[in-house]
Amino acid sequence: MAPSVKLPVPLFEGAQSLESALYCRRSRRNYICKPLSLQKAGQMLWAAGGVGKSGVAGSNRTFPSAGATYATEIYLAAGNIEGLEAGLYRYVCTEHSLEPRYKGDIRSGLSEAAYGQMFIAEAAASVLLIAVPQRTIRRYRERGVRYIYIETGCITQNIYLQAEALGLGTVCVGAFDDNRIRQLIDLNPEEEPEMIMPIGAYS
Ligand SMILES: Cc1cc2nc3c(=O)[nH]c(=O)nc-3n(C[C@H](O)[C@H](O)[C@H](O)COP(=O)(O)O)c2cc1C
Fold first, then answer.
1. Quick check: CB of 159 below 6 Å from ligand 1?
2. How far, in Å, is the centroid of ligand 1 from the Cα of 58?
3. Nearest C-alpha to atom 3 of ligand 1 is from which residue?
4. Residue 99: exposure state from Cβ atoms within 10 A (0-12, 13-18, ≥19)
5. Ligand 1 within 6 A of 27 CB?
6. Closest ligand 1 atom number to CA of residue 27
7. Domains (range + CATH), the chain
8. C-alpha 114 – ligand 1 centre gap (Å)
9. Which residue's alpha carbon is at the smallest distance from atom 11 of ligand 1?
10. What is the 26 CA–ligand 1 centroid distance (Å)?
11. For the purposes of burial, counting CB atoms within 10 Å of the CB of 52, is it exposed (0-12), middle (13-18) or buried (19 or more)?
12. Would you give per-residue pLDDT tens digits along the chain (203 residues)?
């Protein structure tokens, strides 16, 4: 397997206040063809679900999780990122690194699986949120299903706010054909695609 890609150290302070990012947040779909730096891509992934202040792996992330069961895995479908080969990567939060899964640009495939939402193919990359529901359902039974969706929502808002603070665009894409996503990225039956979030410069 190809070696992991270490991401640049994320920043824990930014120029824009949280209040301003909240005020300005909106869904953006008008992406332009401009490469994304590896620093910004890494910053987006850290904000989505990186390890926070105490640095205790699995117990202190940028998002809350029912009973710290952490059902969600974060993937990056890279297309136009400086210094990063196009492909699908899993974000390894404890290492702040990317574990390569597949080579090749899947942005068009994601767009087709999302009923032709073309802007997905135009953004530099997409973050994919993939749940492993049993992690949470094992402990909370039926109620765990609800908890997984709430966890997804927490992560998506992190991504929106970090994108806003970096001057990047993003949008939640929940309308897609699960089976086509499953085939495209070869998910196993225990994994469930929850959200696609394109990220990139916008006009
Ligand atoms: C669960 C969920 C699914 C969504 N799915 C899509 C989608 O498939 N395509 C899309 O363009 N926007 C999608 N959106 C974005 C909404 O259209 C958007 O948040 C809403 O219009 C409000 O606009 P704003 O985010 O700019 O405030 C989704 C949002 C959520 C929360």
1. no
2. 29
3. 174
4. middle
5. yes
6. 26
7. 18-200 (3.40.109.10)
8. 13
9. 173
10. 9
11. middle
12. 789 999 999 999 999 999 999 999 999 999 999 999 999 999 999 999 999 987 555 458 999 999 999 999 999 999 999 999 999 999 999 999 999 999 999 999 999 999 999 999 999 999 999 999 999 999 999 999 999 999 999 999 999 999 999 999 999 999 999 999 999 999 999 999 999 999 999 99
Predicted TM-score (pTM) of this structure? 0.97
Is 173 close to ligand 1, i.e. is its CB under 6 Å away? yes
- Token pair recorded at residue 198: 């394109």
CA distance between the termini of the chain: 38
Residue in the structure block whose two tokens are 């992934």: 45
| Nearest residue by C-alpha to atom 2 in ligand 1 | 174
